[in-house]
Amino acid sequence: MPFFKLSHDLQSVLNDLSALAGEREVRVRKLHLDRLELDSKIENQSELGQLRLDRDRLQVQYEIAVLKRKIREEDRQPPPVEIKLTPSQQAALKKAEVQKQIDQLRMEQSEVLGRTRDKEEQMRLSNLYGGKLEQLFDQLGKLL
Q1: Quick one: how far is CA 29 from the chain centroid?
Q2: pLDDT at residue 17 above 70?
Q3: Domain chopping of the chain, boundaries
Q4: Measured distance CA(144)–CA(139) in Å, rounded
Q5: Is this prediction's pTM over 0.85?
Q6: Distance from C-alpha of 19 to C-alpha of 106, rounded to nearest angstrom
């Protein structure tokens, strides 16, 4: 009987080894597939990296070409014609500029005084704006 039991135990161990060998073969194949997949990913990443470098290089070359074209176009254009204004045109332009400054200063004065509640502060600001407005009116009077 002990021989039969040993034979049975041996057969059981052989069956277990056979099953383990099959599982090992499956694991080895899966690992091999995983390795191939990783190698493929590494190769793809390397190719993508090179393609990105190529794209960046081409982008810089394009930008350089655009800038060179703009420079050539600017070189071809005649210089802007300087317009000479008559003294009366210059005076009218200066008058309009001073009048615009007066209008802006009045609007600013109105806004600032509207926000201020303190009478002394209002008086101080009113004198400040009044002095600036007086200077602008003097300039305007000289132009008329």
Answers
A1: 49
A2: yes
A3: 1-81, 87-143
A4: 9
A5: no
A6: 99
